[in-house]
Design brief:
The structure holds two protein chains of two kinds. By secondary structure, chain A is α/β, with parallel strands linked by helices. Chain A has helices at 40-47, 70-73, 92-103, 110-116, 132-144, 162-178, 190-193, 214-221, 236-244, 266-274, 290-297; strands at 2-11, 14-24, 29-33, 55-60, 63-64, 77-80, 150-154, 182-186, 199-204, 207-212, 225-231, 248-253, 256-261, 280-286. In chain A, helix 8 (214-221) packs across helix 11. Chain B has helices at residues 5-20, 23-41, 54-78, 80-87, 89-94, 100-134, 139-166, 170-198, 205-213, 216-228, 231-235, 248-274. The longest helix of chain B is centred in the middle third of the chain and has 35 residues, at 100-134. Classes of the chains: A alpha/beta, B mainly alpha.
């Protein structure tokens, strides 16, 4: 679908994006992660044609893009910026109608989209009285109002409470259930997007450090598993067994013996632990999460 | 330029904002009230109160409008880009399938219509009262005065768009707006008078005319005084003869250039600043 080839962006002497090549596949959700200042927003703006790259090429469905193509391409795109307050004096419906007209969408679809994002009952209320969560839902609605194939979400749950965040992802999931949208999801809350993305692109200092599915990155990095054994009491013998099995970071946390171990040692360690079942209350083995993968890359 | 659906939507939003917020009503009422007061008490300095001739009234109203409309138009458009950026909606517009010219011209048309309605309704109400009192023979001059006032508003609205794109911070926009207003409404003419005094009137009429066209407020004054045929008296610069080519049509042409040029510069500056 959208492909970036050796894209760079300089602001004066500062290299904001450093020769990034990235292909966004049709129908996937790509997570874009990286610390503040890593170039996420600049890269998103380049993908939307808002910022022109200093070097490199972009192509959409195989066609190389020139500045003149963007108007046409944007008809298929929806963008949800991180922070939008909208116009306090307009109602939710009026706001969505405005952006639908501007984007050339179908005005008849406005009530449908408002219902999709759960604002149908508040559509005649002024946006000035909307909560943060309602504004974010309206923000998603405006991104969807031209029935896009390609959706760019920049920190979409920023400032939302856990309930609002859950609601937001439920709405997104429902929208995608009806239409297989391609989504780029930028976020710094890694735990939140972990189970929502197909692939992740990790940025650092303007460079693409890694890209792939979570499993691919995990496998490439060969990060250790985390084992936690709940015990009736301290078990030095078990500590020794873990150490012999190559486990590291062995210690106690809230009555549990914890350690890191390589994937290939998993069965060996498990059978050793089972052999100590007189003292063992519970066992849990956890694979690295996105945050650990992220820090592994960094 | 084609008036696209996106431009219409943006223009209608701006116009609707000004109508809903009663901005248009307040400004039109203000115009009507001020112009009636000025028309009635315009001759008070010579000990006479009451409606005078239409020519004298237009001369008095010209002075009022040269102060009132520029500051009004400058403040109307001065925050237009900063507002969108602060709200976060600018990025939505930039990522939408519209061109920069559609965005800028949509905004401009919406505000221009709001400003034109306020000016025409305000001056129209007082004009109707004046024409009833003074007779309808001067209706042509008054209509031209209203038209010139609208054009003056459009010029400063156009300049305000440039200011809005030049400065990111609202405080700077306000400071520069006040400076521009002071410069065009007061300081520029003081400079011209100073130039005439220093050169003892040796400045040629071509140079003087060119200098007048560099200030839209002066173009407006000359246009109004040309329409009532008393340019020399009201210019207060009896020693200066304006050349033949300083006709109404030429000055209207220059005025339209004054509307267009800041918008063209705004377009390029916007492109450089927000799509770099």
């Amino acid at each position: 679908m959208l492909e970036l080839k050796e894209i760079s962006k300089n602001f004066g002497d500062v290299k904001a994006i450093d020769s990034i090549s990235l292909k966004i596949n049709e129908g996937e959700i790509l997570g874009l992660v990286g610390p503040n200042g890593s170039g996420k927003s600049t890269l998103l703006k380049i993908m939307l044609g808002i910022t022109r790259p200093s070097a490199g090429k972009l192509s959409f469905n195989g066609k190389e893009l020139t500045p003149k193509d963007w108007k046409e391409i944007r008809k298929k795109m929806g963008y949800m910026p991180e922070r939008v307050n909208f116009y306090d004096n307009l109602t939710g419906k009026e706001t969505l109608e405005l952006f639908t007209k501007v984007k050339g969408g179908d005005l008849g679809g406005v009530p449908v989209i408002l219902k999709k994002v759960g604002l149908d009952n508040a559509s005649h209320r002024r946006v000035g009285g909307y909560s943060k969560g309602m504004r974010q839902r309206l923000n998603l609605a405006q991104a969807l109002c031209n029935d896009p194939d390609f959706l760019v979400l920049d920190e979409p749950t920023s400032g939302l409470d856990p309930v609002g965040t859950k609601e937001f992802y439920n709405i997104l999931s429902n929208v995608r259930a009806r239409k297989k949208l391609t989504v780029i999801l930028s976020s710094h809350i890694l735990a939140e997007i972990e189970d929502k993305i197909n692939r992740v692109a990790v940025l650092k200092a303007g460079a693409l450090k890694a890209v792939g599915s979570f499993e691919e990155l995990y496998s490439d990095l060969n990060l250790p598993l985390k084992i936690s054994v709940a015990l009736k009491g301290k078990d030095e013998a078990l500590e020794r067994i873990l150490k012999e099995a190559g486990a590291s970071d062995i210690g106690y946390e809230e009555g549990c013996l914890t350690a890191s171990l390589q994937k290939e040692e998993k069965l060996r360690v498990l059978s050793a632990v089972m052999g100590r079942n007189g003292n063992v209350v519970d066992i849990s083995i956890r694979e690295p999460n996105l945050e650990e993968v992220f820090f592994g890359i960094h | 330029m084609v008036f696209t659906n996106a431009m219409r939507a943006i223009a209608l939003k701006e116009l609707s904002d000004k109508l809903k917020s009663k901005w248009v009503l307040v400004i039109a009422s203000g115009f009507a009230a001020f112009t009636i007061v000025i028309a009635y008490f315009g001759g008070a300095t010579s000990g006479v109160a009451g409606f005078r001739s239409m020519d004298a009234t237009i001369a008095s109203l010209t002075s009022l409008v040269t102060y009132f409309i520029p500051i009004l138009a400058l403040t109307l458009g001065g925050g237009i880009i900063a507002d969108e950026r602060d709200k976060g909606t600018l990025e939505i517009f930039l990522s939408s399938p519209i061109s920069i010219s559609e965005f800028i011209m949509g905004k401009f048309f919406g505000l221009a219509i709001a400003l034109a309605i306020s000016t025409l309704v305000g001056l129209g109400i007082s004009g109707a009262i004046l024409l009833i009192q003074l007779g309808f023979s001067a209706v042509g001059s008054y209509v031209i005065f209203m038209l010139n006032s609208v054009i003056l508003g459009l010029i400063f609205l156009s300049v305000s768009f440039l200011v809005s794109i030049l400065f990111n911070e609202r405080a700077r926009v306000i400071a520069f707006t006040v400076f521009l207003w002071l410069f065009f409404a007061v300081l520029y003419d003081l400079g011209l008078v100073g130039l005439l005094i220093v050169t003892k009137g040796a400045v040629g009429s071509d140079i003087f005319s060119t200098l007048l066209t560099l200030n839209p407020v002066d173009i407006y004054r000359v246009l109004n005084f040309l329409s009532i045929g008393e340019l020399k008296v009201f210019l207060g610069l009896a020693s200066v003869e304006l050349p033949e080519y300083m006709r109404t049509s030429v000055l209207w042409g220059v005025s339209l250039l004054w509307v267009a040029l800041p918008l063209i510069v705004s377009y390029h500056l916007f492109k450089k600043r927000y799509l770099a």
